[in-house]
Amino acid sequence: xxxxxxxxxxxxxxxxxxxxxxxxxxxxxxxxxxxxxxxxxxxxxxxxxxxxxxxxxxxxxxxxxxxxxxxxxxxxxxxxxxxxxxxxxxxxxxxxxxxxxxxxxxxxxxxxxxxxxxxxxxxxxxxxxxxxxxxxxxxxxxxxxxxxxxxxxxxxxxxxxxxxxxxxxxxxxxxxxxxxxxxxxxxxxxxxxxxxxxxxxxxxxxxxxxxxxxxxxxxxxxxxxxxxxxxxxxxxxxxxxxxxxxxxxxxxxxxxxxxxxxxxxxxxxxxxxxxxxxxxxxxxxxxxxxxxxxxxxxxxxxxxxxxxxxxxxxxxxxxxxxxxxxxxxxxxxxxxxxxxxxxxxxxxxxxxxxxxxxxxxxxxxxxxxxxxxxxxxxxxxxxxxxxxxxxxxxxxxxxxxxxxxxxxxxxxxxxxxxxxxxxxxxxxxxxxxxxxxxxxxxxxxxxxxxxxxxxxxxxxxxxxxxxxxxxxxxxxxxxxxxxxxxxxxxxxxxxxxxxxxxxxxxxxxxxxxxxxxxxxxxxxxxxxxxxxxxxxxxxxxxxxxxxxxxxxxxxxxxxxxxxxxxxxxxxxxxxxxxxxxxxxxxxxxxxxxxxxxxxxxxxxxxxxxxxxxx
Length: 614
What we know:
By secondary structure, this protein is an alpha+beta fold.
């Protein structure tokens, strides 16, 4: 859409003459004569150079817009050259030296004109190539061939004509012919440089001319309203066609920006995205996309205003860099948004995925996006990417030494991901630093402590440390306690209480036992028998009389809750404690507590025995 600006890239004259090349030669000859005039001022010379540029611009627009008619207007100089050769032979034979020089100069002028015609035909042929690269290659080959052929003309033998003071017609004609030859060579040289400098714009003009856009611009500029306002618009480097297209571009930009939401919404719905996902995508790219649309509009208006003959190299670099930056951020936003949507979909289907691996992959992809954007920007400003990449290879050792800690942490992150000692959200303890894993980054891992502080630990330190992971267990969180009863308790009651507690634990729906079955989430229906330690499955249930302590008779209660979630584990443990208390009460048992016993012997002495519970 952007390159529709070539519709009015030039101010096209309403009518074409029968011989546009002849007109160009006459106009350029007049300009050259004025430039050679010693009385012309610097300002006049600048105006003449601008006029020369406009003539070339108009000539190429006419050539591209109606190539067949333009080429048909070229005059073949072969008959004239043939006649001149005959005259040269006769004059040389008769010893008419200056007459022979006059005709040789005239013949060379015709030859240069024919080389110019051939170059223009090659230009038109190049615009018919299927790709822009082929166009550039064909055109540059033609321009090189033209340059070699024209530079082969030797003017030294003709210099004696310029030094003659004779006013004879032969010498005068020879001098005029020499000036015409120099002018023709200058025209060929200048036009060749012009084509080389603006080959991209010429190619655009040829493409859109094939669709009739140039004719539309011609029609607009030839209309009565345009003829009235063009004299005033020309002072602003505008005309009716340019102004019309600029207004169309402004309205189109506004319309596209307003229709952005509806268009993207329809496209995403066609791709079967849900309403929430569509809103997420649109919100994340809305401002970047609108900025890109406005930027394209400004670029189009700039090209329309400046036209083909403007030196827009810096302007093109500025807009190209803008496209690279906006495109990079747009791809970045889209990639991260679609990745987030896919992660949510995967999480809904299964929880068996490594979110930290996905996060690391996204970070690597983001780095790649910005690296490509940086390389494209450097290439835009003429940096040799091959040399840069080679330099990176040569300097890799120095970079590796300077960034050895960063590289060590990076490989530490890879080691963590490969060994999988913990995942995001796990409760871990690393060298006394305990908390929930927030993120496993390229350089470090962040942990949120239980008092809500954040700790950043280098991945190298984690990879070389012992890690306690409280979440790497599928079934069973330990409940261990000693229930102390008084020494006044009846041993039969203690035995009954032990049996009741064991029965209660076996029957408790939230306590893991030998009959508890666990299914592997990766292999449904397969019991975890040999993989209990690997997966973290505990089913041990023990209730025994364990110890005669100083102040109590201790009963060991050792079991595991089915849930490994801390809050659920606390609820289960609380329920077990209440049930144990009921069992002791039912069996006439009392909880022991630290006591002090005083024993009085027959003599009346007091012996103290301090019995303390453990």
